[in-house]
Target: Alkyl hydroperoxide reductase C
Amino acid sequence: MNQSIINTEIKPFSATAFHKGEFVPVSEQDLLGKWSVVFFYPADFTFVCPTELGDMADHYEKLQGMGVEVFSVSTDTHFTHKAWHDASDTINKIQYPMIGDPTGAITRNFGVMIEEDGLALRGTFVINPEGQIKVSEVHDLGIGRSAAELVRKIQAAQYVATHDGEVCPAAWQPGAETLAPSLDLVGKI
Model:
């Protein structure tokens, strides 16, 4: 049984990302001071991965408006990310940093490395401005993720972070009622 990484701090890392036509250095320091999403996927030039990264690109403006930066990560190099960006219309619309992790160090830090294949599971992690992991979602390789659902989860995480004593029930949407856990609610929901 693996220990949960929820509420743990992100581990230090150093990598190179392909971002807006440039190769740029990225470290855990780039995730601090704002909400961040670290979005792992198995490999460039594959099948489900471009659908997920394209879906994330379609929601990127909304996430930016929420004060969230997105970092995609695979065990490919930043050079491969550039080649994929240049070759695919879907990947070409990506505006967020695409981190190369050819050594697998970042992928292992988040516990999503498939050691025998040298690839990442489909892992999504939401990190608060203090560097603590607040959401962890890991999928098998054949199961694609939804950026719209990720947006909702981040909205809930941001709400809870700024409203002490309140929690968001299932399928909560901004503007909907929240709960204030108390003895009076036990057995009433």
